[in-house]
């Protein structure tokens, strides 16, 4: 029987952070096993990337459910059916209701492309440029009922270059998102298991 913790990843798009988690989970000493990828979009590229790896996939469409609560219930059912004990939101572009968040309190992570609490919400890269930020980055946090407001598990910073536009800055942030989420999930699961050495992660080393 595997000692790894089963984790579901919820996406809306290409799933690059999911792939980083899945690759890390292939290592025998990584604490998580990715047991499912669930999307609110049937055309999400990440679903195909999961299928290529033999990971179960599921689609929960918002239009198939009359209310947000009904959608949340269906998403919750899909996550539970996978056997997952923790959830990683990775480019999931919907806001979950407070009841759904409460069901997974302390067991749901999200990655956000800014150094929270700065630039919550959308268009973070352009907003960082417009504000004249010298540093930008990504944060992994526990999901709470308030948007992008839960306790921070890990952060990684990148410099903002004088010639940056939103696209170039987004690419630099994405490069640190992948190792950040891998490190953050491991640290989070360590703390959940009561490991005293599982401390918050800041600027984990990039892969060479």
Automatic annotation (TrEMBL):
Superkingdom of origin: Bacteria
Which reaction does this chain catalyze? N(1)-(5-phospho-beta-D-ribosyl)glycinamide + (6R)-10-formyltetrahydrofolate = N(2)-formyl-N(1)-(5-phospho-beta-D-ribosyl)glycinamide + (6S)-5,6,7,8-tetrahydrofolate + H(+)
One Pfam entry for this protein is Formyl_trans_N
Q: Which residues bind (6R)-10-formyltetrahydrofolate?
A: 68, 93-96, 110
Family, according to the entry, reads as follows: Belongs to the GART family.
Indicate the residues that form the catalytic site: 112
GO terms (molecular function) for this protein are:
phosphoribosylglycinamide formyltransferase activity
E.C. code: 2.1.2.2
Q: Where does N(1)-(5-phospho-beta-D-ribosyl)glycinamide bind?
A: 15-17
Tell me which Gene3D superfamilies the record gives.
Formyl transferase, N-terminal domain
Ranges for domain Formyl transferase N-terminal come to 7-185
Gene Ontology BP annotations: 'de novo' IMP biosynthetic process
A GO CC annotation recorded here is: cytosol
Protein's name in the database: Phosphoribosylglycinamide formyltransferase
Annotated site (Raises pKa of active site His) = 148
């Amino acid at each position: 029987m595997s000692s790894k913790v089963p984790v579901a990843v919820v996406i809306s798009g290409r799933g690059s952070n999911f792939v980083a988690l899945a690759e890390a989970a292939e290592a025998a000493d990584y604490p998580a096993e990715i047991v499912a990828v669930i999307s609110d979009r049937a055309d999400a590229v990440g679903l195909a990337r999961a299928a290529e790896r033999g990971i179960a996939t599921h689609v929960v469409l918002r239009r198939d459910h009359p209310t947000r609560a009904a959608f949340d219930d269906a998403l919750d059912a899909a996550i539970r059916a996978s056997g997952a004990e923790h959830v990683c939101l990775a480019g999931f572009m919907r806001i979950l209701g407070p009841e759904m968040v409460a069901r997974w309190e302390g067991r749901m992570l999200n990655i956000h492309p800014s150094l929270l609490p700065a630039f919550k919400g959308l268009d973070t890269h352009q907003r960082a440029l417009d504000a004249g930020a010298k540093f930008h980055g990504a944060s992994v946090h526990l999901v709470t009922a308030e948007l992008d407001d839960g306790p921070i598990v890990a952060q990684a910073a990148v410099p903002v270059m004088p010639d940056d536009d939103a696209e170039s800055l987004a690419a630099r942030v994405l490069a640190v998102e992948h190792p950040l989420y891998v490190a953050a999930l491991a640290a989070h699961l360590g703390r959940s298991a009561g490991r005293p050495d599982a401390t918050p992660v800041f600027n984990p080393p990039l892969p060479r």
